[in-house]
Amino acid sequence: MPVITCIEDLRTIYERRVPRMFYDYVETGSWTEQTFHENSSDFQKLYFHQRVAKDMTNRSSAAKMIGQDVSMPVALSPVGMTGMQCADGEIKAARAAEKFGVPFTLSTMSICSIEDVAANTSKPFWFQLYVMRDENFLKVLIERAKAAKCSALVLTLDLQILGQRHKDIKNGLSAPPKPTLRNMINLATKIRWGLGMLGTKRRGFGNIVGHVEGVGNPSKLMEWTASQFDPSLDWSAVEKIKKLWGGKLILKGIQDVRDAKKAVASGADALIVSNHGGRQLDGALSSIRALQDIVEAVGDKIEVHMDGGIRSGQDVLKAVALGAKGVYIGRSYIYGLGAMGEAGVSKALEVIHRELDLSMAFCGHKNINDVSRDILMVPKGFRGDWE
Asked: What's the CA gap between 327 and 308, in Å, rounded?
């Protein structure tokens, strides 16, 4: 068993063990990948105030996200095709999150279905929804999430059309992988991954296969999926979905104060400051730089969360200090999943929690709910000084 001390250790193992097309799917952004890289690098521009001679006993990272108790203000982001990173990946990640006491969010584009995850967990999880052109499929999907007792709906607003991701196009990304010579050569080197896939029946999009007529093979499935994202999604559609759902609603993909105010007007319970991990509009502001303006504009009216670039517990602490009530990790837990399965997701959570706990203490705090901007040194112009 390798010694794991940070998320980068997991990423290194992940790169060795997972097929190239699925590694590239996670570890890439759109176009030049500027936003993808700045999501992480912008955290390094924020510095901590170290405090000393402070009582560090009885520390607590426990918090609440949309009224739900969490062991730390972190949730697992929805990640498409998680079950291609590791056999039954969504089930394994959900189990690890449940044991750790943080929310797991299942993607519409998951390999394991809503029902699969519900049957293999004991507590409610969150479900992420993409708005599809097929209204009947959309309604049925929401009803399935209700039947599975999902405790929140995470509605993604920033994927009405797909951003161009060069590596996904070049790799011919699909689930399961297309049997091309290049793919077969690469898959032959991933024995551990292959044995896992041979041992499961879950290799296609579980929320779609069997629920849509005429979609019976991978090529048809990818065609249907690519054509189904609804470019006409607007705020009136958000209101309709809120009524259909009837429960806790989180809006994902907010980057602009104007949209944040519309999120408040929609009656949503929370919003996520997010640029889709840098996989949609390249050249958009990093999430951590966009966060503070949105918190100041609407943070007293709606719960503000964020995702994008979180690779450590220190990143979580910085986001909380700038006003986030919750932070989401995607790539960080996927590295663990691809590296070591369920145990790897648990390890990723342990690493982040330990870094969060120690850094909070060094900044003079014992309780995550007491952390504020005063623990940070923020450079002038960090938010941007735009004309």
From this structure: 9
First to last CA, the chain: 53
DSSP code string of 61-74: --EEETTEEESSSE
- What is the CB-side half-sphere exposure of residue 308 using CA atoms within 13 A? 34
CA distance 357 to 354: 5
Q: Is 276 a catalytic residue?
A: yes
Q: How far is CA 316 from CA 236, 251, 351, in A?
A: 33, 20, 12
Low-confidence ranges of the chain (pLDDT < 50): none
Q: What is the pTM of this model?
A: 0.95
Enumerate the domain spans of the chain.
7-377
Contact predicate 288/252, CB 8 Å: no
What's the confidence (pLDDT) of residue 50? 98
CB-CB contact of 251 with 153 (8 Å): no
The residue annotated as part of the active site, out of 276, 305, 353, 365, is 276
pLDDT reported for residue 2: 85
Identify which of 241, 239, 210 has the alpha carbon closest to the alpha carbon of residue 143.
241
Question: Which residue type is seen at 225?
Answer: T
Q: What share of the chain is helix, strand, coil (3-state, %, to 5)?
A: 45, 10, 40
Task: Kindly indicate whether the domain formed by 7-377 is annotated with CATH number 3.40.30.10.
Answer: no
Residue 120: count of CB within 10 angstroms of its CB: 15
- DSSP assignment string, 1-53: -----SHHHHHHHHHHHS-HHHHHHHS--STT-HHHHHHHHGGGG-EEPP--S
CA-based nearest residue to 274, from 262, 291, 261: 291
217 vs 190: CA distance, rounded Å: 24
In the chain, the amino acid numbered 18 is: V
Beta bridge partners of 68: 65
